[in-house]
Amino acid sequence: MRKRLYIAAPFKQKQLVLDVAALVEPLGYELLARWLGHEYQHEGGINNPANHDYARMSAEHDLNDARKADLMIVLQIPHEGSHYGWLVELGIGLAQAEEVWIVGDVVNVFSFLSGLQENGCMVRRFESLWEMTEYINRERSAYVER
Q1: Mean per-residue pLDDT, 70-81
Q2: pLDDT at residue 146 greater than cutoff 60
Q3: pLDDT score recorded for residue 107
Q4: What's the chain's Rg over C-alpha atoms?
Q5: Distance of alpha carbon 66 from alpha carbon 31, whole angstroms
Q6: What is the pTM assigned to this prediction?
Q7: Residue range(s) defining the domain that contains residue 137
Q8: Structural domain total, the chain
Q9: In what order do the strands lie in the sheet with 29-31?
Q10: Which of 9, 62, 72, 138 has the fewest CB atoms within 10 Å around its CB?
Q11: What does the H/E/C string look like for the chain?
């Protein structure tokens, strides 16, 4: 059975999420990410009341997908206009996933976690996408040898 992968990232980084998933999926992971298919029906995103029901449904999908993850990758790429929903997903991952990879900028105290946590979650910290890619390439080589 394939393990489940959830990638938390700013909404505007959908293509980057797909690129990262393409790197990780050969390690035996299946991407859970209904949010990649979400698009607001009206201008203004979550700030437009006409989008609130859709935003609520999206949040429920995100929570349910994130809770199922064996591996959660959190792409901490703050940008203007971000609502930082990926920080909520980081919390879910730290509480429930077997492994969490934190990639990118330091945004709060949780950015400094690494190693095995008390609840059994292994946290890996990567300062850049390049560093994470190098790690994935090493893991893929080991996975192929198995």
Answers
A1: 84
A2: no
A3: 85
A4: 15
A5: 11
A6: 0.87
A7: 3-145
A8: 1
A9: 29-31, 3-8, 71-76, 99-104, 122-126, 115-116
A10: 138
A11: CCEEEEEECCHHHHHHHHHHHHHHHHHCEEECCHHHHCCCCCCCHHHCHHHHHHHHHHHHHHHHHHHCCCEEEEEECCCCCCCCHHHHHHHHHHHHCCEEEEEECCCCHHHHCCEECCCCCEEEEECCHHHHHHHHHHHHHHHHHC
Beta bridge partners of 122: 99, 116
Task: Report yes or no: 98 and 115 within 8 Å, Cβ to Cβ.
Answer: no
Which of left, alpha, beta for 129 (phi over 0: left; psi -120 to 50: alpha)? alpha
Res. 79 pLDDT band, cuts 50 70 90: low
CA separation, residue 73 to residues 13, 22, 77, 87 (Å): 13, 13, 12, 11
